[in-house]
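Students often ask why we bother encoding 3D structure as a string. The short answer is that it lets us treat folding as translation between two languages. Here is a chain of 104 residues written in the first language.
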Amino acid sequence: MSIIFSTNPDFKFDETEIIETLSPEKQDLRVFRETKHRGGKTAVVIKNFAGNDDDLQKLAKELKTKCGVGGSAKDGEIIIQGDVRDKVCEILTKLNYRFKKAGG
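And here it is in the second language, the structure alphabet:
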């Protein structure tokens, strides 16, 4: 529940909403290969990450490092540059993540 406005003059807004990251075995990731909106270049997109942003960034960094490519992570999605979907799936398997290849 989000507080938008309070008439209480003593109200203190608390931004410490802690999102707990599910264990890799409980995640249900989707691994897509996409070229849309990327100037014709291929990227691998991992969706449905359930957890906090720090863990998302940590997983993204590990995938980018092991694949030797660039990318980004935000809004529960990881974008890995290049056509490295099979390698990403291999890494996710070693890290015990549940995932499914989706799309082309």
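Translate back mentally: The two ends are 37 Å apart (CA to CA). Keep this in mind for the problem set.
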